[in-house]
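quick one, 303 residues, struct below
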Amino acid sequence: MRSAAIREPEPPCAEIAAWRAGDVVEGVFACVRKDRLTARTGTPYLAVELRDRSGAIKARAFRRADALATRFDRGDLVRVSGQVERFRDELQLELRAIARVESGDLEGTAAERFLPVAYRDLDELDGFLEHLCREVHDRELRALLDRLVSDDVLRAAWRRAPCTRAGHHAYLGGLLEHTVAVATLALEVSPLHPRLDSDLLLCAAIVHDLGKTGEFTYGAEIGISEHGRLLGHVQLGVELLERAMAALATDAGRRAALLHCVLGHHGPDGLPGRRFQSAEALALYRLNALDAGIKGALEHGLN
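---
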């Protein structure tokens, strides 16, 4: 009887952040950079950047660089093998093989495996969002929020989307994290200024970036959807809110007040006459900028 062949164990495939010099690795990663460069000796080499949700690493191929380069493009999911080395006090991967992962070849592939994700627990953030919605007592605005958070498709997109691709909250779950932060600021500032319409401000803070749920695409990198490129998230958000408020027969004055806040959350240039017409719109603009600015400084440093 013929004995079964002994299968060699596969190299470890821990997340990039866990790699150490000397590790032999093999796995699937997102390719976010691809360049053909020339060494000082005049020899061409392939420079690549690989990423998963834990981080990124530079990779190099000095042998068969041109042949390997034909097997994938930037933005692909790629299967790689190689050895981790230390070069100039940084880890990099010496590539042995790299090739595109064709559609269908990787069962269960999800963007969450390759794209950065929020540090905060998304279930916890979802709970905060629901709590903040319950703090809106105006009947029509509360009905709008109830309709939005009960939409399972919208809720999943709200939970998944980033805020930006390279700025603040540039990771999956970033939109939900930013929404909760701005809405919490709105809730806290309202008692300090009792003349503010606290329900309007809080509702506007919760929905101000909802257009981002349709702005992005997800793959090896976070991309921009066709609607996002042509219309932008502010217009997408206004259209989404208008449809929901029309279905609820929301009072025209309340509808206009809310949309005014949403249109102006990046500043008065988005408003008719380039002027804020309500203290709530001005407050939302400032609170949005506060959270975005602090988060940007923490993530990217002070400019």
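Residues 1-12 have pLDDT under 50 and may be disordered.
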